[in-house]
Design a protein that fits this description.
The protein is of the alpha+beta class. Among the domains are: about 100 residues, PH-domain like, CATH 2.30.29.30; about 260 residues, no CATH class. Helices cover about 30% and strands about 25% of the residues. The strands form six sheets. Strands 13, 14, 15, 16, 17, 18, 19, 20, 21, 22, 23, 24 and 25 form a 13-stranded antiparallel β-sheet that branches. The chain has a seven-stranded antiparallel β-sheet with strand order 4-3-2-1-7-6-5, with helices on one face.
Length: about 700
C-alpha cells in the first residue's frame, strides 16, 4: 500500500516516425487504475489528451536501451515511453506494475475464474507417435467454453465485460501451457531411432502449434478491440479487420530447452579458412574513394528469383529453425539458412529502388511546388516494384560493417519529362535497353548522370546509409535505414526505421520521407512479400505534404499490395492529388483539375545501373565481398555458399570483438554521424553552397 500513491511527471512519448518523440506530462491515478497524459503540467486541469486502463495491461521495459518502456493496455492500445534515465524508468515501471496487478486482481476477485480443466500429454505414448490423452468431457468445445448461459426469449445478449475477457485469457493461458508441455515432450524424444525429435511431422506439429497460439492471440485481441468499440459505439459499416500483431507477449511460453546453434558447425576447406583469416578492415584506408563513372559498365546481371525448388527441398530445415524461434524474437542476430538468400546485398537492393532515374530527375523539372511534390510521390510509389526481384520473397545478404556499394545511371535528356503530365517515359523496357546502349556514342551533354553510394555504417543495430545525386540538376537524396526484423509466427516483419531527405537545390526545397514496413508471409510454403504501414512526405518550405498508406491484406477478403494516398496543401488543407492501386502493378493518380493518369508498373521502362567490373572493385564492395557466396548460389551448392557466408560473418564477429577489447571505435568511410542519423560526407548541398559563396565573394 505504501507504493500505491499517485505519481506524475514528464516522460517522452513516441508518436510516429515523422513526429518522433514528444514530451508529455503523465499522471498515474492509482485509485482509478488509469494512466493519463497531458500536453504539459499547466493543462493538467483540462481533459487528458489520452487515457489507458491499466487493468490487464502489460508493462514491459524495452531492450532497445535503458530508458524506454511500453504500456500495452488490454484494449490493444500501446504507449511507448522514455524516461530521462534508467533509475526514473525503473521508478515508473515498478509503480505501473503494482497498480496494474492491484486492479487486475480486483477484477479476478469479483469474478471467480472458471474451474480449471487440464489435459495430460501421455508420457507413455505408443511406439509410433506421442499421444494426447484426455477425458471424454474434455473436448475442444468444453475446453474453450467460456460460460454460455441460455437467456430468456427476447432478452438481449449483454456486452462482454472486461472480467469475461480475463476468463478467456485464463483459458488461453492453459492452452499455452499445454502447447509448452507438447514441445517439451517432443524434444525429450531421442535424437535417433524410429521416432526422433527431428521427425518432420513432429517439427510441423511444433511450428503449427506455435502459429495456432499466435492466431488465438490475434482473435483475443479482436475481441478486445470489439469490446472497446462497443464502449465508444459500433464499428462503421464496411470496416475490415486486419491481421494484428500479438498484444500479449508469449516469449516465456516457448522456451525449447537448451539453446541450439543453427546451422551446425562443419569443417571448413582451406579456401574458406584463408578468407576468414584476412584482416582486411585493419589494412584498408577509411579515406573516401571517388568513383569515376566512366569506369562503370552497364550491368548485365539478372537476379530474378524464380526458383522454388530449394525452398521446397529444405522444408525440414525451415521447420527445425521455426521450432527454435520465439514469437516476437528479434531476428537481427539469428543465423538464417543460406538457401533463402537473394543473390545480392541489401545495399544493392537500395540501389535498385532507383531503377527509374528519369522519374527521379523529372521531380526538379516541376514548374510549381505542387507539381514537384506530386512528381516526388509518383517517383516514390514506382520505386518499390523494381526493388523486389521476382514474386518469391527471399532475403538479401546482411551487409558486413564497412561494406559499400557504388553504381550510376545515365539517362538521355530526351527521356526526362519537363512539362506537366508527361512524367512517365513512353519507352518500353526493350526500347530503354537500346537507348542505354546508344549512350556510348553520345557526348556528355546528351545525358544526365545519377551517382549512388551506400555503406553499412553499423552492425548492431544494423544501419545502412545511402546517397544519390545528379550534379547537373542540383538534386540529391540522403537516407539512413535501421532494419528491425521480428518473428511473427508464420511470417516475418521488418520495420525500416530511419528517414530520407531529398534536396532540390535549384528551388531551395527539402522533402523528408520514411519507408514502409515489409512482411514475408507463408514462410512454410511459398513465401511472398507485402508492404504495410503509413509513410509521410513533407516539404516545410512549400507547405505541401503527402500521406501514403500501404495496406496489408485484410483478415477477411481484400486485395494484395494495395496502396492509397493523397497530396495536400497544409495551409488550406486542400487535397491536390489522390492515388490508389497496387504498388507492384497498376497505379491511378487523380489530380485536382479532374484529370486521371494510370501507370502500369510492369511496363514502365527500367534503366540498367552501371557498375565497375569485379576486378576494379574494392575488397569491401558488395559484389566482390559476396562474390563466392553468389557464385555458389548460382551453382546450387548450398553447402559451399554457407561456408563462405559463415566465414565472412565470423571474421566480422572476430574484428568486432577485437575492437571492443582495444576500445577502438569503428570509422566509417562515406557517412558521418549527425544526431540520430547518418549524412554523406560530401553532399551536393555543401558543394553548391560553397560555389555560391565563392561567386558572391568574386
Amino acid at each position: 500500500s505504501d507504493h500505491m500513491e499517485n505519481i506524475y511527471g514528464y516522460l517522452m512519448k513516441y508518436t510516429n516516425l515523422v513526429t518522433g518523440w514528444q514530451y508529455r506530462f503523465f499522471v498515474l491515478n492509482n485509485d482509478a487504475g488509469l494512466l493519463e497524459y497531458f500536453v504539459n503540467e499547466q493543462s493538467r486541469h483540462l481533459k487528458p489528451r489520452g487515457t489507458l486502463q491499466l487493468a490487464g495491461a502489460v508493462i514491459s521495459p524495452s531492450d532497445e536501451d535503458s530508458h524506454t518502456f511500453t504500456v500495452n493496455a488490454a484494449s490493444g492500445e500501446q504507449y511507448k515511453l522514455r524516461a530521462t534515465d534508467a533509475k526514473e524508468r525503473q521508478h515508473w515501471v515498478s509503480r505501473l506494475q503494482i497498480c496494474t496487478q492491484h486492479h487486475t486482481e480486483a477484477i479476478g476477485k469479483n469474478n471467480p475464474p472458471l474451474k480449471s480443466r487440464s489435459f495430460s500429454l501421455a508420457s507413455q505414448g505408443s511406439a509410433n507417435s506421442p499421444g494426447v490423452q484426455r477425458r471424454p468431457s474434455q473436448n475442444a468445445v468444453s475446453f474453450f467454453n467460456v460460460g454460455h448461459h441460455r437467456l430468456p426469449t427476447g432478452k438481449r445478449v449483454p456486452i462482454m465485460q472486461p472480467d469475461h475477457l480475463v476468463d478467456v485469457r485464463e483459458m488461453m493461458s492453459q492452452a499455452e501451457g499445454q502447447q509448452r508441455d507438447l514441445i517439451r515432450s517432443i524434444e525429450c524424444l531421442p535424437a535417433s531411432g524410429h521416432l526422433t525429435s527431428l521427425d518432420q511431422d513432429l517439427l510441423m506439429l511444433k511450428a503449427t502449434s506455435m502459429a495456432t497460439m499466435n492466431c488465438l492471440n490475434d482473435c483475443f485481441h479482436i475481441l478486445q478491440l470489439q469490446h472497446a468499440s462497443q464502449q465508444k459505439g459500433s464499428l462503421p459499416a464496411g470496416t475490415t479487420i486486419s491481421w494484428l500483431e500479438p498484444k500479449v507477449s508469449l516469449a516465456n511460453h516457448f522456451k525449447n530447452g537448451a539453446a541450439q546453434n543453427f546451422p551446425a558447425e562443419i569443417n571448413k576447406p582451406a579456401s574458406v579458412r584463408e578468407e576468414q583469416s584476412i584482416a582486411e578492415p585493419c589494412q584498408l584506408t577509411r579515406e573516401p574513394e571517388e568513383i569515376n563513372p566512366d569506369e562503370e559498365l552497364e550491368d548485365i546481371c539478372d537476379n530474378k528469383e524464380e526458383d522454388l525448388g530449394a525452398v521446397e527441398e529444405q522444408r525440414s530445415v525451415i521447420l527445425h529453425l521455426l521450432s527454435q524461434l520465439k514469437l516476437g524474437m528479434d531476428l537481427t542476430r539469428v543465423v538464417l539458412p543460406t538457401f533463402i538468400l537473394e543473390k545480392r546485398s541489401l545495399l544493392e537492393m537500395y540501389a535498385d529502388f532507383m531503377s527509374h532515374p528519369d522519374l527521379f530527375i523529372a521531380i526538379t523539372n516541376g514548374t510549381t511546388p505542387e507539381e514537384r511534390m506530386i512528381r516526388f510521390v509518383e517517383y516514390y510509389l514506382t520505386s518499390f516494384h523494381e526493388g523486389r526481384k521476382g514474386a518469391i520473397a527471399k532475403k538479401p545478404y546482411n551487409p558486413i560493417i564497412g561494406e559499400t556499394f557504388h553504381c550510376s545511371w545515365r539517362i538521355p535528356k530526351s527521356n526526362v519529362a519537363t512539362d506537366a503530365g508527361s512524367n512517365f517515359s513512353a519507352h518500353s523496357p526493350s526500347e530503354q535497353v537500346t537507348l542505354s546502349k546508344d549512350l556510348e556514342g553520345q557526348t556528355e551533354l546528351d545525358y544526365y548522370t545519377v551517382k549512388f553510394v551506400a555503406e553499412q555504417v553499423s552492425h548492431h543495430p544494423p544501419v545502412s546509409g545511402f546517397y544519390a545525386e545528379c550534379v547537373e540538376r542540383k538534386m540529391c537524396v540522403n537516407a539512413h535505414v535501421w532494419t528491425k526484423s521480428k518473428f511473427l509466427g508464420m511470417s516475418i516483419g521488418v520495420t525500416m526505421v530511419g528517414e530520407g531527405l531529398l534536396s532540390l537545390l535549384e528551388h531551395g526545397e527539402e522533402y523528408t520521407f520514411s519507408l514502409p514496413c515489409a512482411y514475408t508471409r507463408s514462410i512454410l510454403t511459398v513465401p511472398w512479400a507485402e508492404l504495410g504501414g503509413k509513410v509521410n512526405i513533407n516539404c516545410a518550405k512549400t507547405g505541401y505534404s503527402a500521406s501514403i498508406n500501404f495496406h496489408t491484406k485484410p483478415f477477411y477478403g481484400g486485395k494484395l499490395h494495395r496502396v492509397t494516398g493523397e497530396v495536400k496543401q497544409n495551409t488550406t488543407n486542400t487535397v491536390v492529388c489522390r492515388v490508389q492501386g497496387e504498388w507492384n502493378s497498376m497505379l491511378e493518380f487523380t489530380y485536382s483539375n479532374g484529370e486521371t493518369k494510370y501507370v502500369d508498373l510492369t511496363k514502365l521502362s527500367v534503366t540498367r545501373k552501371r557498375v565497375r567490373p569485379l576486378e576494379k572493385q574494392g575488397l569491401f564492395e558488395s559484389r566482390r565481398l559476396w562474390q563466392h557466396v553468389t557464385e555458389s548460389l548460382w551453382d546450387g551448392d548450398m553447402d559451399k555458399a554457407t561456408e563462405h557466408k559463415r566465414a565472412l560473418e565470423e571474421r566480422q564477429r572476430n574484428e568486432e570483438r577485437l575492437r571492443a577489447e582495444t576500445e577502438t571505435p569503428w570509422c566509417t568511410k562515406y557517412f558521418l554521424k549527425e544526431g540520430d542519423g547518418w549524412v554523406y560526407h560530401n553532399p551536393l548541398w555543401k558543394t553548391v553552397s560553397a560555389q555560391t559563396q565563392q561567386t558572391d565573394t568574386n
